[in-house]
Design a protein that fits this description.
Chain B: One of its GO terms (cellular component) is membrane. The structure holds two protein chains of two kinds. By secondary structure, chain A is of the alpha+beta class. In chain A, 19% of the residues lie in helices and 35% in strands. Chain B has two domains: 210 residues, no CATH class; 116 residues, Rieske [2Fe-2S] iron-sulphur domain (Rieske Iron-sulfur Protein, 3-layer Sandwich). The mean pLDDT of chain B is 86. The chains are: A alpha+beta, B alpha+beta.
Chain lengths: 252, 349
């Protein structure tokens, strides 16, 4: 064996045999380890939730629009159920509803459905023509429901944005998603309060201020943190609202 | 003539090495998608973009853990040397994957909005005083800039122009980046997930990397605290192998490589003038110490590269007393002729 035989020199064209053997074995071992790590790390992730959003599936939704506290459309879902659908645009933003223009009238909104369970949000089409006045008479069932006070409550949970949680993102809660949820809420999308654990939570409460108006930007620092909120719960048709005051928010 | 900056050629080994690297990256990403899909409850799925964010983030963390393991492992076995000398390829690949991760995060979580993405990235969570709420994003951003700096200066060109000392100091920042990333993952992804797998994995990576470095530190800490005036103890004569060196670390200055060649002992600086390669891990070939990194050569008796080259390293006096080898801790001017000490003459035993 000459001097060079078992001496690895980085620049040399020949690799000693022992190094080659070790390198092959180590390389194969590392490949197997890499695969194992991918299986372990990928497979152990928490569920992303059952939300869906097919952006390409644009439909026409007839119903009654209202701008407050957050833009909604009282409409008949594809399965015939009457629902309050929240409205968003394609990005992290809220469509501007010039509500006076459409007051008391039926409208048609073009957009794709973001759904999670019974929850529905319509992501309006990205063009000026996403809303138009519908012709014909207003069906009674779509009339905006009366509000019903359910009493006061103190709840623990997490503040999230409805758009992502309904299906725009998966996962859509927790710290990793915090900045995104803040952007959505900042843009006027309705913030919601989910009682932990999320998985067993079937209903969500939409957060408004004490008077039932949209919450202020003061809510942003608390998004995605574990919170205790107290306030009055109000039902309007199929939506629960939590009327609360940011100054009473408490981190748990 | 000095060697100056010289591009290092591609060799079949390097090609095979990069092939494995590419294969590893592809295997991880594909299997990550497959197993993520398989791990989800019925009727649920993670968004593909978000899977890609988790896949690229975890992969670059694992790759950095691997990179940081190579150095200390190479102190235990010479067989790791091929990995050591090609570590930079993994480094650059790690940066590219981290870049992908960063780009996806910025677009997906912080984009699609009227708010500036960088404002969202750095200012949307101001809870720096809270452990639970700590804005993990800023740790990732800091680590990313370090990786960027390292990848950008990884080419030999920069090594040649910044000088091996500064280059090495710059690249030591990788440890800062690793610490930042441990925080980034712990305060971010790990905190969000319920599985115990993640804290255990990140914790063991951090322990593994620090444990390895401590163990390697102990291994290479030669007992250079035995003194004979300026001379420090190297090893017993019998511990020397023909054509190889023992390395000692003086309390200040560069490490010293003491070679045994043709029955004679001579000492030169351990630091190669090319890119700081460890001369003491090299071999004597054609009467010259040959750097294991790219093969620069230095004569044993005066530390000079053979003609026509003009590199030179410091030389040191050696002496042998009672079968124990000592080396002067003070270097001589680089290129100073220093007579090797014969083990068979009267001056030796
Ligand atoms: S570092 Fe390149 S030859 Fe020594």
């Amino acid at each position: 064996m000459s001097d060079k035989d078992d001496f690895f020199i980085g620049w040399s064209a020949e690799t000693p045999k022992a190094d080659r053997r070790f390198f092959m074995l180590a390389g194969l071992g590392l490949l197997a380890g890499t695969g194992g790590a991918a299986a372990l790390i990928g497979g152990a992730q928490d569920g992303g939730g059952p939300g869906t959003w097919d952006q390409g599936d644009i439909q026409e939704w007839r119903g009654i629009a209202s701008a407050l506290p957050y833009p909604t459309l009282r409409t008949r879902d594809t399965d015939g159920k009457i629902k309050t659908a929240f409205l968003s645009c394609l990005n992290k933003c809220t469509p501007e509803l010039r509500i006076n223009q459409y007051r008391d009238g039926e409208v048609v909104i073009r957009g794709s459905a973001i759904r999670r369970g019974e929850h529905l949000m319509i992501a309006t089409e990205d063009s000026g023509a996403w809303i138009s006045q519908a012709s014909g008479s207003l069906p009674d069932q779509l009339a905006l429901p009366e509000e019903e006070a359910l009493g006061s409550a103190e709840l623990r949970g997490e503040i999230l944005d409805t758009k992502c949680w309904f299906g725009a993102m998966r996962p859509s809660s927790g710290k990793v998603h915090k900045a995104c949820a803040s952007l959505c809420i900042r843009s006027g999308l309705p913030p919601a309060f989910y009682v932990k654990p999320l998985r067993e939570q079937e209903r969500l409460l939409i957060i408004t201020d004490r008077r039932g108006a949209p919450v202020s930007q003061d809510v942003l620092p608390y998004v995605a943190d574990r919170m205790r909120l107290s306030g009055d719960v109000v039902r309007k048709g199929d939506v629960l609202y939590l009327r609360t005051d940011v100054s009473t928010f408490e981190r748990v | 003539m000095a060697h100056d900056y010289k591009a290092i050629q591609w060799t079949p080994f390097k090609k095979r090495y990069d092939l494995f690297l590419l294969l590893g990256v592809a295997t991880y990403l594909v299997l990550f998608f497959v197993f993520t899909a398989g791990g989800q409850p019925d009727g649920e799925s993670l968004h593909p973009v978000q899977i890609a964010i988790a896949a690229t983030g975890s992969l670059s963390f694992l790759m950095l853990t691997f990179i940081l393991s190579i150095g200390p492992l190479a102190r235990f076995t010479d067989r790791m040397k091929p990995f050591l000398y090609n570590r930079r390829h993994v480094g650059v690949a790690t940066f590219i994957i981290a870049l992908l991760h960063a780009a996806l995060v910025v677009i997906w979580y912080h984009g699609f909005s009227e708010t500036n993405v960088f404002v969202s990235l750095l200012a949307s969570n101001p809870r720096y005083s809270s452990l639970q709420g700590f804005p993990f994003e800023s740790l990732g951003v800091a680590a990313f800039f370090i990786l960027f700096l390292m990848a950008a200066t990884s080419h030999d060109f920069w090594n040649a122009h910044l000088g091996p000392g500064l280059w090495k100091a710059l690249h030591m920042l990788v440890y800062v980046a690793f610490a930042l990333l441990v925080g980034h993952v712990m305060f971010g992804f790990v905190q969000d997930q319920t599985s115990i797998v993640y804290p255990v994995l990140v914790g063991s990576s951090a322990l593994w990397v620090s444990g390895l470095h401590i163990a390697a530190g102990f291994k290479s800490a030669t007992p250079s605290d035995v003194h004979l005036g300026r001379f420090i103890e190297v090893a017993e004569v019998s511990a020397f192998e023909e054509g190889r060196a023992r390395i000692v670390t003086p309390s200040k200055g560069e490490r010293i490589a003491v070679f045994l060649h043709k029955g004679k002992l001579s000492a030169i600086s351990n630091v190669c003038r090319h890119q700081g390669g460890p001369l003491g891990e090299g071999r004597v070939i054609d009467d010259c110490v040959t750097c294991p990194w790219h093969g620069f050569q230095y004569r044993l008796e005066d530390g000079r590269s053979p003609e026509p080259f003009s590199e030179k390293v410091a030389t040191y006096s050696v002496k042998v007393e009672d079968g124990m080898v000592f080396v002067d801790s003070e270097p001589k001017e680089p290129g100073t002729r220093t007579e090797p000490v014969s083990l068979h003459g009267e001056d030796a035993l």
